[in-house]
Amino acid sequence: MTAHEILKTYYGYDSFRPLQEEIIRHVVGGGDALVLMPTGGGKSLCYQIPALMLDGTALVVSPLISLMKDQVDALKSNGICAEALNSSNDSITDADICQRISHGEVKILYLSPERLAIEKDWLQQNVNISLIAIDEAHCISQWGHDFRPEYTQLGEIHEAFPSSPVLALTATADKTTKIDILKQLKLRNPRIFISSFDRPNLSLDVRRLLTAKDRLSIIKNTILRHRGESGIIYCLSRKATQQLADKLRESGFSVGVYHAGMTAQQRTQVQEDFINDRIDVICATIAFGMGIDKSNVRFVIHNNLPKSIESFYQEIGRGGRDGLNTETILFYNLQDLITLKKFAEESNQKDINLEKLKRMEEYAEALVCRRRILLNYFGETSDCQCGNCDVCKNPPQRFDGTVIVQKALSAIRRTGQQIGMWATIDILRGNTNAAIMSKGYNSLKTFGVGRDIPAREWHDYLLQMLQMGYIEIAYDEDMHLKVTTLGDDVLYGRKQADLAVIVHEDKRTSRKKEVHPQLFNLVQGEDAELFEKLRVLRRTIADEINKPAYIVLSDKTLHALAQSRPTTLDDFGEISGIGQYKKDTLGERFTALIREHLSKLG
Ligand code: ADP
Ligand code: ZN
């Protein structure tokens, strides 16, 4: 079969995504390659299709059992003979798999680098290895964020299997890691394929300076908009994951917690529950995610600012792998910035970490399209207006805020620059609390001059002032605010200060509220009631075969079914994502359901 025929017959897709076909041709021709594609970009097909075209068995090295399991399940659900050798198998299963491998029945074999080292001699002697794919190839590099010492053994892979092409794949785009992968794996004249890192189906939204209460209400609304769908909420600390989860559970949401302080068994359980839709939402530290291939995560929220754009992009990348619309929200406040700055200051790569944080901060503060900033960060020069980020949707407006800025600067100066953020706000607002009274700040000339502006807006303006360089935070002096020379220019009337108009949450969300929760991803002409019925049937089948629902059919395919409403097997087989095997195994039940639904409609 040709690559196209395999794509259609096994996967049910009509066309390749950018680069897939070229990569397949290169590998089938025996060449080594490094593939850089974002999560959800379609890397797996790049080695799976060559594996089906070539004689023998393809080896796929993967770092985690959960990832192997997911891939093997997905391949089997398309009628492709794939297996995994790993420590979760019992010895009888392993023996059976090995026997089938030696009979040439297994087309794709997943295994960990440790296991490959053990099986190497046996494989060399008994098996025709068609190609070797190294998934999550950045794990070989100490520069990457997931270094795994076991991966270093892969440097000898060509010596062990000199006639098999090696294909390294990763979603990590950074340049140092890329060069290191090539070097460590000793690839032979590799071609490097880099696809765009844009993920247009992920919306980007930054919400600034909200109180904990406001954040909680936004989180709850987001979960409600995605009732019955999956989402991840990242928090900075273990304690914070637990607290947030407790609050959400009080409101009746189905929520799990994941962090590195839990036992391995607890973590596996939570992960399994999430993958199998027994838990909708996970509150997690960044420890969560590496083993998650779940394709239908519909929202990712950062309850705290991430420490770098790389981590941020990787974390939101866990959403929307199936290509459907997915929401991402980042909460941004000064406290997080201060905490992270402190971490960075104290780390042993201080300069690099501070720089990375600075870029993250610039992203959160940006007044231009946020996607543009991300793409530029990853080296794709872009001047897009994506239309799917908060800046594009609500372009910021500016006004002459000189008087506001002067009031704040004057308050800071009059205390001898001995106050932090909150005391500044107290003075401006004329709050008579103990701390203010004990210092006599209530008799300052600026006391109460900013009563007309609510505290949370002052908070926002002070952050803007920080960003524009009118003030700085003295990290070594109790976080006191200091007026800069640029600030003095404004204070003494030499310069005008423009501020961005603060957009209130209620105004922002009003548009979204009109969307019916379940209808978030409905395509044109789709039958919402039928979608629900199809979803229930998918769940039933998933439970019968004990696999995650998205392995049975992806959300995207389910939406396409609800739109096209095929009633015959042939029409069913034409839907994107349905290959021959799914047509044969699922077609009867799904078309029967659709026929019944249509007959009720009359
Ligand atoms: P990655 O490994 O790069 O994260 P996957 O290989 O898991 O991405 O692919 C992500 C999703 O895109 C999967 O659901 C896959 O079936 C789908 N996909 C891949 N290639 C195509 C294609 N050519 N047409 C339609 N869907 C595709
Ligand atoms: Zn945009």
Structure write-up:
The structure is a single chain. The strands form 4 sheets. A 7-stranded parallel sheet has the order 3-4-2-5-6-1-7, with helices on both faces. Strands 8-13-12-9-11-10 form a 6-stranded parallel sheet, sandwiched between helices. The chain has a two-stranded antiparallel sheet with strand order 14-17. The protein is globular and about 90 Å long. The protein folds into 4 domains: 3-194, Rossmann fold, CATH 3.40.50; 202-393, Rossmann fold; 398-500, Winged helix-like DNA-binding domain superfamily/Winged helix DNA-binding domain (Arc Repressor Mutant, subunit A); 518-601, Orthogonal Bundle (DNA polymerase, domain 1), CATH 1.10.150.80. By secondary structure, the chain is α/β, with parallel strands linked by helices. Strand 12 (297-302), helix 12 (309-316) and strand 13 form a beta-alpha-beta unit. The chain starts with a helix and ends with a helix. Helix 17 (402-414) packs across helix 18 and helix 18 (421-429) crosses helix 20 (455-467). The protein has 27 helices and 17 strands. The protein binds adenosine-5'-diphosphate and zinc ion (ZN).
